[in-house]
Amino acid sequence: MSDPLFPNPRRLRGFATLGSLLPPILVVMAMALFAGCKKASGPPALGAPEVTVMTVVAQNTPVDLEFTAQTQSSREVEIRARVDGFLDRRMYTEGEEVRAGQTMFQMDPKPFEAALQTARGQLAQQQARLTVAQQNLARVKPLAAQQALSQKDLDDAIGNEKQAQAAVISAQGQVDTAQINLGYTTIKSPLNGLASYARQQDGSYLIANASGLLTYVYQLDPMWVNFSISENEMLHFQDQISAGKLVFPPNSEFVVSVVLADGREFPQHGTISFANPAFSTETGTFLVRAVLANPKGTLRPGQFVRARVSGAVRPDAILVPQRAVLQGAKSHFVWVVDGESKAHQRVVEVGDWNGDNWFITDGLKAGERIVVDGAIRVVPDVALKIAGTLASTQSGGKTIVEKGGASAPEAPEGARPMAQGAASGASQ
C-alpha cells in the first residue's frame, strides 16, 4: 500500500506518457478550428442569375373590352285575354316551344257566339228597313216630278233612305265586333318562341284590363345582349381616343362575343345594334345592346354573361408580361438589360390589363431588352446568364420561346411581382 504523499512510480509514468500526447492533439484541434473559421468568414461563391429576356416591340395591338352583360329576348310578348270571360283550358305545354299561330288558351265561346247571332239579327232588320226606304223613295221621285207630291214628301223619303243606310252600316259594325270578340276567345301565339308557365288556371274568370295576363312567349333567335358603360369609362375612352392611344373601328363596327358563366365562349358572334343616346339618370350608365344569332336556343333570357367587345386598337403600344413588372416602394419597375448583359432598374407607368400582360404607357422604348423570367433574382449591375429570348407578347399574351431553350422557371406564387387583381386596379 503506497503512501499518499509519495505516489506509485508506475502511476507517475502513466501521467508522463499522457502529458507527452496532449500537445499534438491540441495542435490538430486548433488547426481544424482555424480552418473552419477561415472558410465561414469568406463570401459564398455566387453564379450569374439565370434569366429570360424579351426585346420590347411597339406595334398596333388589338384590345378587347369586357363588360358585365345580361341576355334579353329580342321579342318578349305578353299573352293576354282581350275579352272578359271564363278560361276553358290551356292548350300548350308550359316551358315548351310554340309556333306562330298555335292555340295556347281557349276561353268559353258560347256568350260571344250568342252576341254574334244577335248582331246578325239586328243587321238583317236594318237591311229590311233599308229595302223599304229605297222602294218608297223610288215611288216618290216620279210623283214628285209630276208635282203629284210635295217637295217635303220627297225630302222625307230621301232622308228615310239615308237613315236606313246608316243603320245598316252600324249594324254591320256590331256584327264585326261580335265576330272579333268571338275570335279573341281562341288565344294564339303571335310568334315562334319559348312559352312560360301559365299565370291563370282553367276555370278562372278573366278580366281583360286586370287579370288578363296569361303567360309570356320569348323569341330566342336572335338574342339581345345588354351591357352598360359607366360615365367614367366613357370619359376614359374619349380621352384616350383624343390622345391617339386608342382607335375605335369605323362606324363602331365592333365584334361582340359572349363568355358564359362557366368560362366557355358562345360560338356565335354578334354586332352592336343599339346604343342609348342618353345616360340613365338612375345609374349614370350608357346602355349598349348587341344582337347575336342563337339558332339552338343555348342562350336564355335573363342570363348574366360577359360581353367581350373586339375591334379597338392601341397604336404603337408596348405590351410586356405581367411577371416582368415588379412593385417597388412607390412605383412599378422593370429590369432593363444593357449591352453588357447587366440589369438596371427602370421605373415604368402601367396602363390597362390585357390578358396576362400589361400595357406600358411610359418608361420603355422599342428595342430595349427587359428581364421576364427570373426578375426577382436579379441584382443591379451584375452580369446575367441569359437562358432564352422571348418573342413579343403583342398577340393576346402568348409568349413563344425563340431560342435558348425553355424559359427560366417563374418565381413561386407567393413571390410573384403583382397579382392580377392589383394590376387591374393600378391600371385604372
TrEMBL record:
Biased amino acid composition, Low complexity: 402-417
Multidrug resistance protein MdtA-like alpha-helical hairpin domain residues: 116-185
Sorted UniProt keywords: Membrane, Transmembrane, Transmembrane helix
Compartments in which it is found: Cell envelope
GO terms, molecular function: transmembrane transporter activity
Spans traversing the lipid bilayer: 12-35
Domain Multidrug resistance protein MdtA-like barrel-sandwich hybrid: 75-209
GO terms, biological process: response to antibiotic
Superkingdom field: Bacteria
Main location: other
Ranges of residues in domain Multidrug resistance protein MdtA-like beta-barrel: 222-310
Cellular component GO terms held in the UniProt record: plasma membrane
Multidrug resistance protein MdtA-like C-terminal permuted SH3 domain ranges (all copies): 316-375
Region (Disordered) residue spans: 397-428
PANTHER family: ACRA/E-RELATED COMPONENT OF DRUG EFFLUX TRANSPORTER
Family: Belongs to the membrane fusion protein (MFP) (TC 8.A.1) family.
Stored NCBIfam families: RND_mfp
Protein name: Efflux RND transporter periplasmic adaptor subunit
Organism: Paraburkholderia pallida
